Amino acid sequence: MYESNYRLGDCDAFALAAHHLTGWPIYKVSEKEGKDAWHWLVKSPGGAYYDAEGAKDSDEILAEHEFEELPPPSMFLSNINELRNYRSDTVERSKLAENEAKRVLKL
After folding, report:
1. What is the per-residue pLDDT across 43-84, written as a single tens digit (0 to 9) for each?
2. CA 83/CA 85 separation, integer angstroms
3. What is the pTM of this model?
């Protein structure tokens, strides 16, 4: 998988790999709780959110996912089972994402 894949559709695999490596909680961006995710990421103990592009704050993440035709996004604490069930191959793809997660998280 190429690095850009984790920015364009494989954010779930990146988030799961980052969670496995760090134990950091998983968050999702969606229009409201219980709805499908628009984006997956993890939150560090210092409060920064991480996706394949590195550390971001919540305002930056939400701004990236605001679209005129959709309700404004929110961030919700998720759980590992919800992420694993997001796509049938998330767990398998997360193993491929581990090297990229190590690079981004500087592990």
Report:
1. 999 999 999 999 999 999 988 888 777 778 888 999 888 888
2. 5
3. 0.86
